[in-house]
Amino acid sequence: MLYNETVHKMFTSLMERFDKMERAFERMNKLKDCLDGDTLLDNYDLCRLLGVTKRTLARYRQKKLIRYYMIDGRTYYKASEIQEFLQMKGKSLPAAVSH
C-alpha cells in the first residue's frame, strides 16, 4: 500500500510539472505572436530609457499616449510603438533597443 501511494504521489507531482511547463510554453507562444519580430520592453526598461518614473508611464497609458500589453499581470511595450511615440515628440530610442 505504501509503495502505491508513493508512486501515485510521484506521478501526480510529475504531471503537475508537465502542466506547469505546458502553461509556460503557451505564454511564450502568446508572447511570440505579440512580438512579430519586435523587442518587448517592461516598465523597468522603459523607465530607464525614457528617464521617467513608473507613475509617468501609468499616466501615459491612462491618456492612451502609448500602447501596452498585459502578459501574466506584467506590463510590456513594443519597442517599435515606443519609437513611434518618441518620434511624435521629436526623440528616438537608442539603436540597440529599436526593432
TrEMBL record:
Domain spans labelled Helix-turn-helix: 45-87
SUPFAM superfamilies with a match to the protein in the record: Putative DNA-binding domain (SSF46955)
Superkingdom of the organism of origin: Bacteria
Classification via InterPro entries: DNA-bd_dom_put_sf (IPR009061), HTH_17 (IPR041657)
Record's protein name: Transcriptional regulator
